[in-house]
Amino acid sequence: MADQELTWRGAAARWDRMLFDGVARRHWPAADRVLPGLGRAANHGVLWGGAAAAIAVLGSAGARKAALCGAASLALASATVNTVGKWSVRRPRPLLEGVPEVRRLMTQPTTTSFPSGHSASAFAFTTGLALEAPGWGAVLAPVAVSVAFSRVYTGVHYPSDVVAGAALGVAAGLVVRRLARGVEEARAVPGDERTAAEAPALPDGAGLTVVVNTGSGTAADEGLGVLRARLPKAEVVECEGPELAAELAAAAARATVLGVCGGDGTVSAAATAALRAGVPLAVFPGGTLNHFALDLGLAGAEDTCRALAAGQAVHAAVGRFTPGPDPEDGRSGHFLNTFSIGAYPELLRHRLYWAPRIGGGPAALLAAWKVLRTERPVRLRLAGRPRNVWLLFAGNGTYHGTGPAPRRRDSLGEGLLDVRLVHGGGRPGPRLLAAALTGPLSRSPVHTATRLRSLRLAEIPAGTPLAYDGEYAHAPAALVLDALPNALTVYRPR
């Protein structure tokens, strides 16, 4: 057995050297100019750090999350290579005989050869990125392959060093993805919402109609896959854009239970359709942030399928905004997370306008610059009193965290509005910064926070924007905000 192992190792080493020499003998004029420089750019992860920063600026919120996962994967792979890989094998670097002088690095590495740290970092970053944002992963995959190949091309690694490093990098990306999913699941902690005993059990999905927002990306695709496997008799309607609201209304009218797969804006529209039709709602998280689903206690589509099969649901409160002084006048809108008037809707308006043209990151920067440079406080009547406000935030339930627009709740059954104001006066930048540094439910010269059952807004200037659950619209002259306790029946496992 020992002789066979030695024979196998010897054959592998000969193949390794044969491939190394074959690469050294090949003449690629363009590669001589590109690959050595590319390898140097990847030293100490600089190339991938720059890529992460660029994606964070140019990409969407989902792309920024993907870049963070890529960076975390790179850190894990690099730590593993430098603490375990290099010092457990201790393989010498290849001899440079036969490698053309023009390819050789000016400064040769002094660490051991196995595995390739550059390859591990390249494949770790690209894998972590691709698992969250496949489009960006596809863009950088050729760069990662080129960096890995450059290590053989410049004579500092054997091919097996590169293959082992790449495999380690892929494994690091998968581990970080698993850990990130675990963190999301830990965030999904059920609150004290009241049990809805009347929710029907649909073990095979019969009677369930699910509207899937195909524009939500890979998260919606994953949720749809789980749904089809666990609830095969459910009706699935795929759509996006302007037809979404009509499809939700039609599905709610014919279904026993309305399901929705998408982000927070899609879920909010589905909740409105479910309330008007008087049917329960099943949420399959499919967006980037999924605030409502996580605050409800749903970590993913699997949780929703289990709840539907067992008929387990709770009553959740819903925020409502109604035009006119009377809540029964006009057609109301609903929000599951937040409602706002002032600086944030203006930021959202500019970002929505510019994002298709220049990308999400630059659009956000441009929107902030425009708002901080040109925005004026909104003059309106609030609870019967005239006010100047930079920002009015109303949350469906009490949010935790500092600042005028925090992002986490313990319960969706409270039935109160978490109202926060940034008062007008001065420039918006210093005011909003000062408000961000104040604590929850605190009072300061610029920031007021309280909890209310309802709030009346009047004398709103024409054209004033409002935002609710990430959607943008223009406010009417008067509004009533109120909370509807236990209004929505929504599935969640016990």
Short description:
With 494 residues, the chain is α+β, with helices and mostly antiparallel strands. The protein contains 15 helices and 18 strands.
Keywords:
494 residues, alpha+beta, twelve-stranded antiparallel beta sheet, four-stranded parallel beta sheet, 18 strands, 21% strand, elongated, disordered N terminus
Question: Mind sketching the topology for me?
Answer:
Blueprint: H1 2-25, H2 29-41, H3 46-58, H4 61-89, H5 117-132, H6 134-153, H7 159-187, E1 194-195, E2 208-213, H8 218-230, E3 235-239, H9 243-254, E4 257-262, H10 264-277, E5 281-285, H11 291-296, H12 301-310, E6 313-323, E7 333-335, E8 338-342, H13 343-358, H14 360-374, E9 378-382, E10 385-396, E11 399-400, E12 408-409, E13 417-423, H15 428-436, E14 447-452, E15 454-458, E16 465-468, E17 471-474, E18 479-491
Helix pairs in contact: 2-6, 3-4, 3-14, 4-5, 4-7, 5-6, 5-7, 6-7, 9-10, 13-14
